[in-house]
Design a protein that fits this description.
The chain is of the alpha/beta class. Helices cover 34% and strands 27% of the residues. The strands form five sheets. Strands 2, 11, 12, 13 and 14 form a five-stranded mixed sheet that branches. Strands 1-17-16-10 form a four-stranded mixed sheet, covered by helices on one side.
Length: 404
């Protein structure tokens, strides 16, 4: 970054106190209705980016960060079950649908991309029969298209919103545990390993002092279970898996509850046909689930932005959340005196994305080092990341950054 931009940084540095006796961390898995909405919105954005680049050599204006999942109806049963009314997913937003006389097949891109993601990520869901995807994407407003075009022409994208992004580092042991459990479950060979475990997983972790409680919901799939005994055996196996991960992350004192609302005596258990609660009345929406770091962390600063589906070129609600996370990580990695960091980045609509209106760094330091003494090094790190925003945009377009 050039010296002029460096000197224009509105940077505030202050002390961070991260001592907490109680901590809460949550994650919603890939099959959770909210995560499905995030995933399909982001899939649509990435596919639009690729179509635009293929046709026109650059990403065109779009924001497709509005999605709603309306749950269907199902009749789960041990050894079988069926979906009686399909899940309905509405993907909405604004995008360049026509350029001159050339039409962009936005509806086809929306539906085909959504079905591909569902087939790849939900092993018991029939994406052709169990789901109806509806595209409600329209041409964007003229003022925002113009703002986007001005930035593209100048090769210096202009922020299309006044918003902020936040990030923190390092993740706590509890946060790493929550990620490890769900990502490990999703990363297994789901077509052969524990077929009864669906992808609709929700983990709530609560730490009080050294003790941890894990409440885990997992949609069990009826056709892979013979009876109630089989169901209870799978619950016990999942609890053991969670306890092993907790031990690996330093939590020997860990209480685990799986599908805590079950009442086996009355045959009321979390049984599904497809492995997601979306099949039978649970709805979903973009932005109600995991933040950019994959977690929901009420003890940490969070943005309410729905990053998934926003355009990766000029929408700071997407870019700045990834940027702030990376700045915080680099502060901890690159400055020996910093033990933990939080970063807040604020934009102003119409200003260059690379020149935020405000950056606030909160630093927890070692040996009583005053955070202000680290201001210059912090500014260098921030400036470096701002200068590499084009690389970040490329990673977003390529799908190399997980946002939920």
């Amino acid at each position: 970054m050039n010296a002029l931009v460096f000197s224009m940084l509105a940077l505030v540095v202050s002390r961070l106190d991260i001592t907490e006796e109680v901590e809460v961390a949550e994650r919603k898995g890939a099959g959770h209705p909210d995560t499905i909405c995030d995933a399909l919105a982001e899939t649509l954005s990435r596919n639009l980016c690729r179509e635009y680049v293929s046709r026109f050599g650059r990403v065109l204006h779009h924001n497709v960060d509005k999605a709603l999942l309306c749950g269907g109806r199902a009749m789960p049963a041990f050894g079988g079950g069926k979906v009686t009314n399909p899940i309905r997913i509405f993907l909405a937003g604004r995008a360049a649908t026509n350029v001159g006389n050339e039409r962009i097949p936005v509806e086809d891109i929306t539906i085909e991309g959504s079905r591909a993601w569902l087939k790849a990520n939900l092993h018991a869901l029939d994406a052709d029969r169990h789901v109806r995807v509806e595209a409600l994407v329209r041409q964007g407003s003229q003022d925002l298209q113009s703002l986007f075009s001005r930035g593209s022409t100048q090769r210096n994208p202009l922020a299309n919103d006044t918003s902020f992004g936040v990030g923190h580092a390092p993740l706590s042991a509890l946060e790493r545990l929550v990620l490890a459990i769900e990502q490990g479950l999703h990363g297994r060979d789901r077509a052969h390993d524990r077929l009864a475990w669906g992808e609709d997983i929700k983990i709530m972790a609560v730490r009080s002092g050294e003790g941890v409680k894990l409440t885990i919901a997992c949609a069990m799939i009826g056709r892979f279970l013979n009876d109630m005994d089989s169901y209870l055996q799978q619950k016990a196996a999942l609890a053991e898996y969670a306890r092993e991960r907790a031990t690996e992350h330093g939590f020997g004192d860990c209480e685990v509850a799986i599908n805590a609302a079950d009442d086996a005596a009355s045959d009321s258990v979390y049984l599904t046909v497809t492995g997601t609660s979306a099949e039978a009345g649970d709805d979903g929406q973009v932005g109600r689930g995991n933040r950019v770091n994959g977690l929901i962390t009420p003890w940490r600063p969070m943005s309410l932005e729905a990053a998934a589906g926003k355009n990766p070129v000029s929408h700071v609600g997407k870019i700045y959340n990834v940027l702030a996370k990376r700045v915080a990580e680099t502060l901890v990695e690159a400055i020996p005196q910093v033990s933990a960091a939080q970063c807040l980045v604020v934009s102003r609509i119409g200003a260059p994305v690379s020149i935020p209106d405000l950056i606030h760094l909160r630093l927890a330091t070692k040996d009583g080092v005053p955070p202000e003494e680290l201001r210059e090094r912090g500014a260098e790190i921030v400036s470096d990341h701002l200068g590499r925003i084009p690389e970040l945009v490329g990673e977003l377009v390529a799908g190399e950054i997980q946002l939920y």
